[in-house]
Structure formats: C-alpha cells, structure tokens
Amino acid sequence: ELPFLREVDLRKALLQGINRQYLVDHLNQGQAIIADGPVFPKTWAYYENLPRYEYDPEFAIEILKDLGYTFPSEGVTARENEDGDRLEMELIYPESGIHAQIARAIQENWTTLGFKITLRSLPYEELMDRLESREYEAALVDINLTGMPDPDPYPFWHQTQATNGQNYSTWNDRRASEYLEQGRLVLDLGERARLYKNFQVRFHDQLPALPLYYPVYSYGVAAEVKGVRIGPIFKASDRLNTITDWYIFVEVPGGLEPTNDKSAGE
C-alpha cells in the first residue's frame, strides 16, 4: 500500500488529472459516458445529482502542492513530500482490448501532474491473481455487472469484502458498509434508493476508486419497428427484454374499412 494513496484529496487530484472525456471520445468513439460512481445510470438506484469531478489538471496540481508534494530538485520528474514519499507507482492493466491505450493516456495525464507511472500489462489470469492477493499499487480494471440486474454494490465495496472478496481497493469504511447492509434488508424500493443515494455520496466524497466511464451499447432499429424501449443492458440479451411490445404496421389487402354503421358486426 502506498502511503500517499491514503490521502483523500490526493485521490481527488488523481481523478481530476484524468481526461476522461478523451477516453470516451477518442478511445471509445463516443460509445461511453463519464462515470460518477459505482452505480449504473438509468437504474432505479442511480443518484443523478452528484457533482462531477471535472478534468482540471491545474487544480489537481494545486492540490498536490497544498499537500506538500513538490519537485525536490531540478530535473526530477516525480514530486515528493518532506517525509520522502515520492509520487510514483506501477499501474497494471489487462493486455487485451483498449486497456493499453487507456493506461497510456492515464500515464501521460498523471505524468503532467508530477507522478512517475510505470505501466505493466498482464494476462487476465495473472491480473486477477494480483487483484485477489492485493499485490498491486494501482490497477485498471473493468467491473462486470453481467447478471446483476439489481444494482447492489455490496460485493465490490462492503468492508467484509476488503480482505478476500471483490473489494479490491480494500475500502474499509463503516458508514458506507452500513448503507449497503441496510439496502439488503429493506424491501421498500424508495427506501433502498435513499440508502444507495447515501452510499454514492459517501463513495463520491472518499473516492476509494477512480471511476472512468460507463460503456454504451448502440443497436440499430429499423424505422418501421415501433414500441422499442431499451433500458440498462447488463448482458447482450437484455436488449430484447421488451420484444413482446415491438410491432410493425402492415397493410392488409382487402382489410375492413372503418364504418359508422352501428349494426356492423351484429
């Protein structure tokens, strides 16, 4: 565990130092939206009024300066504090897909702030081994909610999952965990939404992880197909959830003409 990552304000500086709009527009061709937290938009549990951490590298640098991180001498590329804690870390990422491009973009962004970032790509199995054993400093990962239509964040963020579970950030926050526990006990959907709102506010304030973006899946629908409504997609087949409501108007040869004759059909 790196000492400087324990500082909430430093984690906020890291997030505000990432150009997430670039990741969306250039690396995902616009097929994503910037993430505010661990709950997907368009689900009943999503809280849409969280303030966004905008890309602001100048402000992020000011945060680092206020925390006492400066360049110790000319030519040094990583900031340090008076205790000698240097802002350097290894970022591991999956060797497949666009992860290398994302990792390089983040490395470039954080280098501008005064971090020294070493990149290491790993096969998926090795990456998971490192996550499960907590043998990493920073990791670029995808959180897959396939098969989880109930947006319960418990498996990834409850404190009991910090040692051996999927809480890979090892976030041990009692207040957040209480919201998650109560969210599993309460049946009323409105009350659950309130609890998950509180959880999202707490996550936003503490930033145990740095959310990047939510993927967007685009599907073409012929203009003549009506009644198509597509909500959150957790797996590919979810796009067909409302297929029984889809319809097409067709012209029936010899069909009945409208009539005002009340006796018609008697």
CATH superfamily heading: Dipeptide-binding Protein, Domain 3
Terminal CA distance reads 82 Å
The shape is: globular
What string gives the helices and strands in order?
Answer: HHEHEHEHEHHHEEE
SS element count, helices: 8
Cα radius of gyration in angstroms: 24 Å
CATH topology: Dipeptide-binding Protein, domain 3
For the report, how would you describe the main beta sheet?
3 strands, parallel
- Helix-strand category: alpha/beta
What does this structure look like?
- This protein is α/β, with parallel strands linked by helices and 266 residues long.
- Strand 2 (88-94), helix 4 (99-113) and strand 3 (116-122) form a beta-alpha-beta unit.
- The chain is globular and about 90 Å long.
- It has a 3-stranded parallel sheet with strand order 3-2-4. The chain has a two-stranded antiparallel sheet with strand order 1-5. A two-stranded antiparallel ribbon has the order 6-7.
- It has 8 helices and 7 strands.
